[in-house]
Amino acid sequence: MINKLVDKIKKTNAPIVVGLDPMLSYVPEFIQKKAFAEFGETPEGAAEAIWQFNKAIVDATYDLIPAVKPQIAMYEQFGIEGMKAYQKTVDYCHEKDLVVIGDIKRGDIGSTSAAYAVGHLGKVQIGSKSYATFNEDFATVNPYLGTDGIKPFVDVCKEEKKGIFILVKTSNPSSGEFQDRVIDGRPLYEWVGEKVAEWGADCMGDSYSYVGAVVGATYPEMGKVLRKVMPKSFILVPGYGAQGGKGADLVHFFNEDGLGAIVNSSRGIIAAYKQDKYKEMGITEENFADASRAAVKDMVADISGALASR
Ligand SMILES: O=C(O)c1cc(=O)[nH]c(=O)n1[C@@H]1O[C@H](COP(=O)(O)O)[C@@H](O)[C@H]1O
After folding, report:
1. pLDDT, tens digit, for every residue of 55-90?
2. Active site annotation includes 10
3. How many whole angstroms from 126 Cα to the centroid of ligand 1?
4. How many domains does the chain contain in total?
5. How far is the CA of 128 from the centre of ligand 1 (A)?
6. Which range of residues forms the domain containing residue 28?
């Protein structure tokens, strides 16, 4: 799957991921109204609304992008109905030939981690049959429990040709509380980055490992260091747009080959129709997905422009 991701980035010329984090408050009124008329103001109604919202955004952007990253929490808050919308979203994105990064941020001990890995990336055995249940292509994983938590994911990835992105330096303001702590002369995120390189060393695709890392766009200097610590790891870079990251901050996350990083924007794309910039282009709630398409093009131009002038 890492090869497919790289191929799709090359084909689209777009090292970006659209984050499908559909908060109900981002879903235009007319979609909510229709869903509530059919299913009531219920978890089922909310799930229908976020699914219709996602579908419109995917339809408007899939030809421009290599990948999507649905954030499971946004679906899980609506219980089983929300999880069905998550599944529909994953399956629909596959129909559109998009790489799906399940932002599930799992991390637990061995046997539990194995169950998460099987459920999201592998196949669960039921009697004589096996089923790919959630069936994402990549998942995000929290490394706090160490090798015991990561190895089950790596084992499933090896078998299924899938991949993971391991949290190394996260984009949020308080990420430094633990991640920047200096241990034996080096910050913890560097130790974790080194471990990601080690875990991924025998998990190589054609040019990159399918054991990747997450490093926030909001910490460009750390991204520069981590790029060197993990030269073969693909870096998923969240924090662009709504959290303040810009193309110019991102150049050092990429290798000289122009690859090695994929930048996520969620609110900046899916809720673009709320921004004045796109309103001024005549976009209203009714054609909200056109704003997402325009925002994807703007994001790609911003990142490509920064890479071209480095
Ligand atoms: O793993 C992630 O994707 C992630 C890691 C991180 O360090 N920071 C971060 O914001 N994310 C996720 O990336 C998305 C960012 O959303 P926006 O800020 O709306 O673009 C959310 O789904 C976050 O959960």
Report:
1. 999 999 999 999 999 999 999 999 999 999 999 999
2. no
3. 34
4. 1
5. 39
6. 2-302
